[in-house]
Amino acid sequence: RLTTNYYQRACPRFQDIVRDIVTNKQITSPTTAAGTLRLFFHDCMVEGCDASVLISSNVFNKAERDSDINLSLPGDAFDLIVRAKTALELACPGIVSCADILAQAARDLVVMVGGPYYTVRLGRKDGLISKASRVLLPNSRSSASDMIRFFASKGFSVPEMVALVGAHTIGFSHCKEFAGRIYNYSTTSPYDPSINPRYAEGLRRACANYQRDPTMSAFNDVMTPNKFDNMYYQNLQRGLGLLQSDNTLVVDARTRPYVQAYATNQTAFFQAFSHAMEKLSMYGVKTGRWGEIRRRCDAFNIIKT
Ligand code: HEM
Ligand SMILES: [Ca+2]
Ligand SMILES: [Ca+2]
Questions:
Q1: Span 177-191, average pLDDT
Q2: Which terminus of the chain has fewer Cβ atoms in its 10 Å neighbourhood, N or C?
Q3: pLDDT at 305 exceeding the cut of 90
Q4: Ligand 1 atom closest to residue 164's alpha carbon, by position in its atom list
Q5: Which residues, listed in sequence order, are joined to residue 122 by a DSSP beta bridge?
Q6: CB of 48 shorter than 6 A to ligand 1
Q7: At which positions is Ca(2+) 2 bound (predicted)?
């Protein structure tokens, strides 16, 4: 029901406008790519790819972005969508959905940081529901079974899941997400013994007094943090995985074969990632009267009381 040429008549410069805004933003704020990719994942997995994650809370409604897990989504990613929406409303008022802008921007950013190109079909409508209480996503302490069950419930296979989490080849995580692995791990070991000792020492230093400064963080991929490549999987094989949920992928027998495959063959990873992203980009999308074209991405057109 989505098409690649959806805006050809009503907003022919859609692709160019998004690309321009994305390029400028990524150059001035290089953390935009990772933040936006995560924002898109968190959008699609709750109510579908419908920009529900962009809605701001009001006195009547605690919206998705104020759920605990979404509080760490970076402002730059939201700002990018606001900028693109503003430019698109000037060029073609009332035509382009926020959900399409987010899907298109995420793809452009993946390509910009060296990742694979994939087709983004268009015609999503913006959703009419955004509730913090409905945000159920895996977290850094989820087990392999939890993650497999979560992705399976959305129709994603184990190899697709392992490919999608490969997005952790860019971006960073706050210290509190992995502090349990590097401080006071157990009575016999100061840190999780599955972590490379020198890496663990480095992380302990990087996160020293993170409790006083909660912004402290570490790159998800210690080797090539800003490049979209298959290094993430190679890291997992060497005890250089940052989150427990990352490390689990190389420990569990159901996911390990795909970690190995993607670690040895970047082409295989890129193919799997682009297919899985195309699929993710269409997950739960709304068309026709099931949604609206928001005037602003952070508010429904009609405020419900
Ligand atoms: C089992 C699945 C997953 C878990 C448990 C997980 C967990 C996390 C956590 C805890 C962070 C750190 C957030 C912070 O401290 O700010 C993070 C960051 C990130 N995640 Fe995931 N994630 C998962 C899957 C995915 C998927 C499927 C994608 C995209 C396709 C993704 C993209 C990202 C990106 C790009 C970042 C870096 C964000 C930034 O630099 O601002 N993650 N993830
Ligand atoms: Ca959504
Ligand atoms: Ca990388």
A1: 96
A2: C
A3: no
A4: 27
A5: 3
A6: no
A7: 169, 221, 224, 229
Please say if 275 is a catalytic residue: no
Q: Judge whether residue 60 has pLDDT over 90.
A: yes
Answer left, alpha or beta for residue 17, where phi above 0 means left and psi between -120 and 50 means alpha: alpha
**Within-domain flag for 300:** no
Ligand 1 near 168 CB (within 6 A): yes
The whole-model pTM stands at 0.98
Q: What range defines the domain where residue 214 resides?
A: 144-278
CA-based end-to-end distance of the chain: 32
Q: Do 160 and 80 share a structural domain? A: no
For the CA of 233, the nearest ligand: 3
Ligand 3 centroid to Cα of residue 246, in Å, is 14
- Tell me how many domains the chain contains: 2
What ipTM was reported for this prediction?
0.99
- Which ligand 1 atom is the nearest neighbour of the CA of 147? 1
Query: Quick one: 100 and 183 in the same domain?
Result: no
pLDDT digits (tens, 9 = 90+) for 76-95: 999 999 999 999 999 999 99
The pair phi, psi for residue 77, each rounded to 5°, is: -70, -45
Residue 119: pLDDT band with limits 50, 70, 90: very high
Return the CATH number at 22: 1.10.520.10
Ligand 1 neighbour 138 (Cβ under 6 A): yes
Domain identity same for 50 and 62 = yes
